[in-house]
Each structure stands twice: as structure tokens, then as C-alpha cells.
Amino acid sequence: MKFHRTAALVASLALAGTASAITIDADYDHASLESFSVAGAGGRPGTTTYVDLVGRDNYYGNGQWRWLNFTASDVLGDNVVFRISDNFAGGGSKLNNHAMVYSYDGVNWDYFDNNQRSNGTYSFSIDGGFTQDEVQVAYAFPYSYGMSVAHTQEVLASPWATPTLSGDANGVIGMSPGGTDDLGRTVDPREIFAYRITDPATDSGRQQKLKVMVMSGLHAGETLGTHTYQGLIDFLISDDPVAAHLRQAAEFIAYPCANPDGRFAGNSRTTVENVGTDPNRLWHPDLYATHQDIRVQAEAMYLDITQTSADLSYFIDFHSTVPTGGDDFGFIPFDQGDHLSPFWQSLLAIQPNIQSSNSTGTSWYTTNHAEAFLGAEVDVTFETQFGFQRPLDYYHDMGRNFGLAFADSLGIPIDLIAGDANSDGVVDLVDLSILAANFDSFGTFEQGDFNVDGVVDLLDLSILAANFQPVSTPEPASFLLGLAALIAGTRQRVC
């Protein structure tokens, strides 16, 4: 669904005597651009089209822009140079090593070949011109509100995820307030989601699980944090045997898009309802009373943590930041020893480039709220840094490493291979024989229950087959014979 108002953000500028017009669209979910102009003989061989952009200032003041996201059409074969002022939020120097991204399908992204800052202008282009007629351009890998909705639906379709106590059957815990954005567009209220991930078979209440709460998307333009969040969630609902063990020992309460209006409207940092206020300074009942989207989530958290009796052990809020030196890092309290917690130490060992930064004071961040009102033992604001020109998979893989770190902190081996019952690093006939001995009965991973659903069955056999690693020429044939014999035996028992 589009905004209610479509203005000059969508326009075609046909240049006299040129072979084509360039169309710029920034009126869709998560798009952001104030205005643009086009100069140059676009479409003529050997010529260059210059597209001058004006970014939106919807928080920082003095015309400073940050989040940028738009689609350019009629660019096939054109040598296009995009230009924008380096009046960038955080300082123009933060663009020195930055590269913009582009995509022809909104899924596969590449960095622009040429990115440079000179004489107050930041420009970016690719070598050889665009190979398709339409291209999406962004400051960093986008993550729209619609992507959060689609991912939430995917998560809730998993057998390992359910709505939280505060949510309805679709995981909706409330509505954002909507409002009018800095461009005068009406932004409708949007659904706010939450869900809980764990293994319901071990959710009897007799066993206290490690309780973790995670969230993302509070600052609208900090998309790398949300990609990292998704990497964690995708791991938690996956068939990975480590994830299966982790679900038995831990529960995760998750809030995927904490600022739906700001994300949808293409804001850089804030909500639409309170565009001049940092939403990560309002997480106290006295402050969020007039901030509906924050109040909805805070009150949901109070209820959601009561579903089980365990205390909240960890709270993590995924963000992104302009380059600050160093590498991706977590704001984490040193004086309370949070940086020495088993999970954080495991994460540093698994992904050594992550750094720790001391978090001090109380400005009513989400982490202050988690500690003061949710009783979180360890709280982390995790910051991914723009400007490294890393592939998108890096952030998804880092999210997965968060999950591995939680598993490692609980003593779960993180090098498990699905189908490797005896943990010797190879899925072979020995593992098949273990599975056969326990087939059609209750069992553990070590007994052939590779999806850790409590039963050794054909699903586990299929997992073993998918990961089977023959070590000699005759073994594949023997393996197939073993499968046939096992299935035949199963049928005899069933008859």
C-alpha cells in the first residue's frame, strides 16, 4: 500500500533531445528522498547523465540527511552519476569510505563501483552503465516494513514460534499511531508484532529455560541491525541441530520492527508521531505515555516475560551506526560485569572482530528499560557499522553466530552435524546403524533424533540421507541397501 499522497517524488524528466527520460520514485515502503534534478544528455553514447539528489532531514537539523532509498527507471545503458551534498548526519567524513548499494530486483545487491567525496559533494556511479532499465538505489541494504511483516509470517508458520501472551493469533501486539511525515504524507497506523521461539515439547514449566529478549528496527534507517536480527531468528527456527538443542534449553521473545511508521515512511531515525525525538530515549513509563508505539511494546514486554517463571537473562537491541572506528560492537555495561557473561564471551570467541564498548549512564534506552523494569541480567545494544562494504550474508551469518554463542554458553556443542549421531564429524553407516537401533521410538540426537522432536523416525532418516558422506567407493551402495532394509523393517513393524 502506498502513501496517501504521491507528489513530486515520482516524476519523469524528459530532457530535450535525449534518447530517454529518467524517472525517480521514492514514494513506497521505506523509500526516502526529498527531491532530485537531472542534467546531461542521457542515453547518448559516450555521454553522462547527472542526477542531483536532495536527502531528507527529518531529525538531525540543518539539512543533514542519512537514510536514502529510491528507484530510478529508464536507465538502461546510461552512464549515470548520482550526486548529493555531503551535509551528512554525523559529518561528511563518515562518507569517505562509504559505498552506496544498488539492485535490479530488490533482493540481490551490489555496491557502486565509484564512490567519492569532493568539494562538498558525494557522488556515486557504476562502471559501464546499468544493464537493466530499473534500479533501486540505497544508502545501505534496505529492510522495509513489508519485509518485517513477511518475515514475521514466515517465522510464525514455523512449529517453533508462537505469538506472545500480548499478541493475537497473527502475532499483533498493537498498532502504531501513524501520522503525517516530514513530506506532508499521511502514514496509516501499522501493526506491531512479537513472537516467542522455543521447543514446545520442553515447555512444560518443570524446566526453567534461559530467557532471552531481542528487538530491532527502533531507529528507522539502521537496517544492518535488522538484517543481523533476521540472521539470528532464521537460525533459531532452522533444522540446524544446534538450533534444535538450543530451543530445548532456551526461549526467545522477539520484537522485529519497533518503529513501523518510521521504517515505512523512510525516516532516518525517529518515529512519524514524534519526528523530533529520539525513540531510544523514551523507555520509561513517565516518558512513553505520549508515544503510542513505544508504550504498546513496553507494556507487551511486561506481560510477555510472565509466560514462564524464569528471569530474563539477556536483552539485545540490534542497531546500526555510522563509522566510529574499530568494528561492529556492543554497548554493554562493564561495571556490572555484563561483558564477562558466558554468552558475550562465547560470541567474542566465535566472531573475534566484534568489540565491546562500555555502556554507562541512564538515558532510558531500551537497555535501561530492560534492566530496570524487566529485570534483565545482561543488556546489550549491538551496533553494526555502515561503511565496511561487506556482503549481505555477513550480517545474516553474524546473526547466526549470536545463536551459536547462546548455545555454546549453555554447553551445547556448536559443531554438530545433522545426521552425525556419534559426533565423529562424518555422517556414515555407523550413524545409520544407531538410527536403525532406535527407529520408531523416543530418543535423543545421539540416538538418531536429528531434528530433536523427541522421536526417531523417517524425518530423521531423511536428514541423515541428505548429509551422508561416503568415505569409500562401495559405501554408497551399502548405504542405499541399509536404507532399503530399514524402511522394509519399518513397514513390517507397522503391518
Automatic annotation (TrEMBL):
Family: Belongs to the peptidase M14 family.
Domain Dockerin: 414-477
Organism: Mucisphaera calidilacus
Active site: residue positions: 383
Swiss-Prot/TrEMBL GO biological process terms: polysaccharide catabolic process; proteolysis
PROSITE patterns named among the record's database cross-references: DOCKERIN, EF_HAND_1, PEPTIDASE_M14
Signal peptide start and end residues: 1-21
Protein name as annotated: Zinc carboxypeptidase
Essential cofactor(s): Zn(2+)
Record keywords: Carboxypeptidase, Hydrolase, Protease, Signal
The UniProt record lists the keyword Protease: yes
Peptidase M14 domain boundaries: 141-410
Family matches, as Gene3D superfamilies: 2.60.40.3120, Dockerin domain (1.10.1330.10), Zn peptidases (3.40.630.10)
Residue runs in coiled coils: none
UniProt keyword Acetylation present: no
GO molecular function: metallocarboxypeptidase activity; zinc ion binding
